[in-house]
Amino acid sequence: MAMSRVSKDMGAESLMAGAGILSRSADEFDNDPSVEAMWAIKAMEHAEVYFNILCSVDPKLLRLTPHDNAIYTAFREEFPDLKLGKLTEEDLKSTEAKQKWRPFCEQFKDIIEDFSFGTLLRLDSEGEYSEENSILVSRIQFYAIELARNREGLNDCVRSTFKPRRTTKS
Q1: Alpha helices (H) along 10-116
Q2: How far does the chain reach from its first CA to its final CA, in angstroms?
Q3: The predicted structure's pLDDT at residue 37
Q4: Are the CB atoms for 141 and 101 separated by under 8 Å?
Q5: Which parts of the chain span the membrane according to its record (predicted)?
Q6: Confidence of residue 3 (pLDDT cuts 50, 70, 90)
Q7: Most CB atoms within 10 A, among 43, 74, 79, 127?
Q8: What is the fold of 33-161?
Q9: For 8-31, what is each residue's pLDDT tens digit?
Q10: Is the overall model pTM greater than 0.90, yes or no?
Q11: Cβ density class 134-160: b for 16+ within 10 Å, e for less
């Protein structure tokens, strides 16, 4: 993926300097390419770690947050018919979808740390992270969808299909 290419171009010193920067409010930044690259790297690292966990552990046993039950219950109340096996960009980012997702996400604003942090999500639950199978969503959308996939058995095939990989070293 393009994001792993970015991490090889940035040295450890740049990444360390970026760690403090990323904790500041997004309002302080314009479209700074180095900040965008650091966010992309952080999102890719999160995706790699999560996918390795899926490859190693029965997804039904995973706890992603201390609030998993509340997130899952609220998600299925708001999105009872959303088919999670193969999502589309329209399911997450169309005007109609945004009108449903926005209030869902906002209810977790003071509950889930970094609830709006950009996080990579696999569109097809049977596939791995790739440029074609990944979309950027908010952290709470990731939690809601992946909790449902884990509990509803949609991530069960990952462990038998894929093996854990070494994570990218920055």
Answers
A1: 12-22, 33-56, 68-78, 89-93, 95-106
A2: 14
A3: 76
A4: yes
A5: none
A6: very low
A7: 43
A8: yst0336 like fold (1.10.3560)
A9: 444 444 444 444 544 555 555 555
A10: no
A11: bbebbbbbbbbbbbbbbbbebbbebbe
**C-beta neighbour count of 118 within 10 angstroms:** 17
Classify 153 in phi/psi space as left (phi over 0), alpha (psi -120 to 50) or beta. Answer: left
Please give the helix or strand (H or E) that residue 3 lies within, else none.
helix 2-9
Cα–Cα distances (Å) from 168 to 3, 4, 58, 100, in that order, read 10, 7, 23, 35
Region 32-51 average pLDDT? 80
> CB neighbours (10 Å) of residue 117?
18
What percentage of the chain reaches a pLDDT higher than 70? Answer: 76
How many C-beta atoms lie closer than 10 Å to residue 39's C-beta?
18
The C-alpha R_g of the chain, in whole angstroms, comes to 16
C-alpha torsion 102→158→62→40, nearest 10: -50
Closest CA to 75 of 138, 132, 133: 138
Q: What tokens appear for 7 in the block? A: 């991490």
